[in-house]
Design goal:
171 residues; Pnp Oxidase, Chain A; six-stranded antiparallel barrel
Length: 171
């Protein structure tokens, strides 16, 4: 197949010391509001205008633009998401900041698993599938190494819903 279209991200790689304070803010109610309502709407524009170099994660976390078609509407939707790679696959976590409802993009992927990802000016088609069992457990642990907020999100959703892990293969 060749080169992976989006940059590879090793979840084991140490992150900047600035990630701690930003994560602490992101895990508060105002932080969740800001990142889910403001950054999520502005980031696609910022990333498109900067060739993927500028977003509200300020380079502290890897961000990819996911483009799906609405599960009911069929309308194209683009959202910025934190990601990492596992071998040749891109991994996404449908945490929705630990809120009780699944993110809309998760429902869109379940209905239409053929999607587009763009990062750092590179764009390609992918096919998504949800993973379960040991693979899900291993990948979720890697996600928590990348961003400690995923551990908090898992606690917030305990007894309400599971946090889906999606594996995306380039097509």
């Amino acid at each position: 197949m060749g080169e992976l279209a989006v940059p590879r991200v090793d979840p084991h790689r140490p992150r900047s010391g600035l990630l701690g304070p930003i994560t602490s803010f992101a895990l508060t109610k105002p932080g969740t509001w800001f990142f889910s309502k403001v950054a999520a709407r502005v980031d696609p524009w910022l990333m498109a205008m900067s060739g993927g170099r500028v977003n509200f994660a300020a380079g502290l976390l890897p961000v990819v633009l996911l483009t799906t078609h609405g599960a009911r509407s069929g309308v194209e939707r683009t959202v910025p998401l934190v990601y990492f790679t596992d071998g040749e696959d891109v991994i996404l976590i449908a945490s929705s900041f630990g809120r009780p409802r699944y993110p809309a993009w998760y429902h869109n992927i379940k209905a239409n698993p053929d999607i587009t990802l763009e990062a750092r000016g590179r764009r390609a088609r992918f096919h998504a599938r949800e993973v379960n069992g040991e693979d899900r457990a291993r990948l979720y642990e890697l996600a928590k190494q990348l961003y400690r907020g995923y551990g908090d999100y898992e606690q917030r959703t305990a007894g309400i819903r599971h946090v889906p892990v999606l594996r995306l293969a380039q097509v």
